[in-house]
């Protein structure tokens, strides 16, 4: 008897071949067509479905190559007997379920911590901390460099895992001159933003049972990266808005200590030279490595930024982290690490495992942007622009919100903390509904939040947006 198939219909928008392949393979996986079942010849199926015989032959060939079907000379085409029903049991009734494992197979994974959302539509709202002024970016000059670089075939293949050599040279020169970092370009590792740099440090350094010390309040991205394998994060409190070095004695040693010594995030204090010396001394005595996150030192208004700890002392146990997210654009996803020479191979290996090379074209454009002097000019312009915005923002805050919030002066750079006694999570959420980003200060604490306030990223806001946001805050905050 000629085998018949009458439950197929090719009326979807996808190409016929794709529809037929999908329907046949699914019916086999769902055991609607059992192993050993004979299928119609390609001539008959083509006639039944009103498609060309070539279409059916192509699908049959594909299914044979994948082991769904087999053909037997002189007899016809069959569902392969090697597809054992018990192997397919989990696919039964799977049509309505999204692709993926059934609930019984899901391991008990730790939940992502923090205010984590998929597909964050709000990521570029004005006042979101960390966001530069995207409109002020010199996009025309950038595109010219991009156009120039994208025609180079050398940039289309694989590249140096450690980072594009001209970019590593440009970074080494920049951090030496402007941040006092002691390094050779062989010590520079290009990363996908500071965030990947922090994750790589965790991968290279942390072993089961290790402790990580972190400023409290502090940068959440560092906590997520360094605590993700279940390592204990130990909060180190601040004193006068900087890491309290004296508290370290009681807290005891750890493998790593994360800090932002040149502009504490988010409170803004700067470790002075004697505190820097005490920190390095403590780290050396306790065999602890300092992670120095130098995320926004270019934008200081009160004083010239202090030189990086990394360069102050020979042999200081410091891993230096930098990023172009603030000085250029977050979307580039390019940052860098400067690590001691003996550790470079470990980092390059860790990078290879977690993502491999950084996008070569972006690296080449950044290198040219720096080498041509445009980076320095851009930084100069942005410094002035952010200073003007800061002054405008400060003036509006003191005119309108006096008594409702206390601005933390040191924090100014690209953001400013407005402290107060209010439910900061609630106010931040309501501000967001009105189109203004901000982060609740309380979210930056590891344990119990001891202070409330809003971290306001004014760098991304126009004067009109500053006015609008201050007016919204005046309504949302409790009267002073
Ligand atoms: C303290 C701190 N470090 C680093 C970064 C940069 O992160 P990334 O380079 O991953 O964008 C930020 C960005 O907001 C930050 O606030």
Features:
480 residues, alpha/beta, Arc Repressor Mutant, subunit A, Aspartate Aminotransferase, domain 2, Aspartate Aminotransferase, domain 1, 3 domains, eight-stranded mixed sheet, four-stranded antiparallel sheet, 15 strands, binds pyridoxal-5'-phosphate, Tscrpt_reg_HTH_GntR, DNA-binding transcription factor activity
Average residue-wise pLDDT: 90
Main sheet characteristics? 8 strands, mixed
Placed side by side, the strands forming the largest sheet appear as 4-11-10-9-8-5-6-7
Give the percentage of residues in beta strands.
5-15%
CATH hierarchy: architecture of the largest domain: 3-Layer(aba) Sandwich
Level-1 CATH class name of the largest domain: Alpha Beta
Bound molecules: pyridoxal-5'-phosphate
The overall number of domains is 3
Please outline the helices and strands.
Layout: H1 16-29, E1 38-39, H2 42-49, H3 53-65, E2 69-72, E3 76-79, H4 85-88, H5 139-150, H6 165-179, E4 188-191, H7 193-205, E5 211-216, H8 220-227, E6 232-239, E7 242-243, H9 245-251, E8 256-259, H10 273-286, E9 289-293, E10 318-323, E11 335-338, H11 344-353, H12 360-371, H13 374-400, E12 406-408, E13 416-419, H14 424-433, E14 439-440, E15 453-456, H15 463-476
Pyridoxal-5'-phosphate is lined by residues 130, 193-195, 219, 221, 260, 265, 293, 295, 323, 325, 330, 335.
């Amino acid at each position: 008897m000629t085998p018949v198939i009458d439950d197929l219909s090719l009326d979807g928008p996808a190409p016929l071949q794709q529809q037929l392949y999908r329907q046949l393979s699914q019916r086999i996986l769902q055991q609607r067509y059992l192993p050993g079942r004979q299928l119609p010849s390609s001539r008959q199926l083509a006639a039944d479905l009103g498609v060309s015989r070539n279409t059916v032959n192509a699908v049959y060939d594909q299914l044979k190559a994948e082991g769904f079907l087999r053909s037997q000379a002189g007899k016809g085409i069959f569902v392969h007997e090697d597809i054992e029903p018990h192997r397919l049991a989990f696919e039964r009734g799977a049509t309505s379920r999204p692709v993926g494992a059934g609930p019984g197979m899901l391991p008990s994974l730790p939940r992502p911590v923090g205010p984590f959302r998929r597909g964050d539509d709000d990521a570029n709202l004005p006042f979101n901390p960390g966001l530069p002024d995207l409109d002020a970016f010199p996009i025309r000059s950038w595109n010219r460099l991009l156009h120039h670089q994208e025609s180079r075939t050398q940039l289309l293949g694989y590249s140096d895992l450690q980072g594009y050599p001209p970019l590593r040279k440009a970074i080494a020169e920049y951090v030496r001159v402007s941040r006092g970092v002691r390094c050779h370009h062989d010590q520079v590792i290009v990363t996908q933003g500071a965030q990947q740099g922090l994750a790589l440090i965790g991968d290279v350094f942390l072993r089961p049972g290790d402790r990580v010390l972190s400023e409290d309040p502090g940068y959440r991205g560092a906590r997520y990266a360094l605590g993700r394998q279940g390592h204990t994060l130990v909060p180190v409190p601040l004193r006068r808005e900087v890491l309290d070095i004296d508290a370290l004695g009681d807290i005891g040693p750890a493998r790593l200590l994360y800090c932002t010594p040149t502009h504490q995030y988010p409170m803004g204090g700067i470790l002075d030279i004697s505190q820097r010396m005490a920190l390095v001394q403590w780290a050396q005595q306790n065999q602890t490595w300092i992670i120095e996150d130098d995320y926004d030192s270019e934008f200081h208004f009160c004083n010239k930024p202090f030189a990086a700890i990394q360069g102050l002392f020979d042999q200081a146990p410091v891993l230096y982290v930098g990023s172009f997210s603030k000085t250029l654009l977050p979307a580039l996803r390019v940052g860098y690490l400067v690590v001691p020479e003996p550790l470079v191979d470990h980092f390059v290996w860790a990078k290879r495992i977690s993502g491999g090379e950084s996008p070569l074209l972006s690296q080449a454009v950044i290198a040219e942007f720096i080498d041509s002097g445009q980076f320095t000019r851009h930084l100069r312009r942005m410094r002035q622009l952010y200073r003007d915005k800061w002054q405008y923002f400060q003036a509006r805050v003191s005119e309108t919100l006096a008594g409702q919030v206390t601005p933390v002066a040191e924090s100014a750079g690209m953001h400013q903390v407005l402290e107060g006694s209010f439910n900061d999570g609630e106010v931040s959420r309501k501000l967001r509904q009105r189109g203004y980003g901000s982060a609740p200060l309380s979210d930056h604490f590891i344990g119990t939040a001891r202070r409330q306030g809003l971290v306001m990223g004014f760098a991304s806001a126009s004067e009109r947006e500053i006015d609008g946001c201050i007016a919204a805050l005046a309504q949302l905050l409790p009267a002073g």
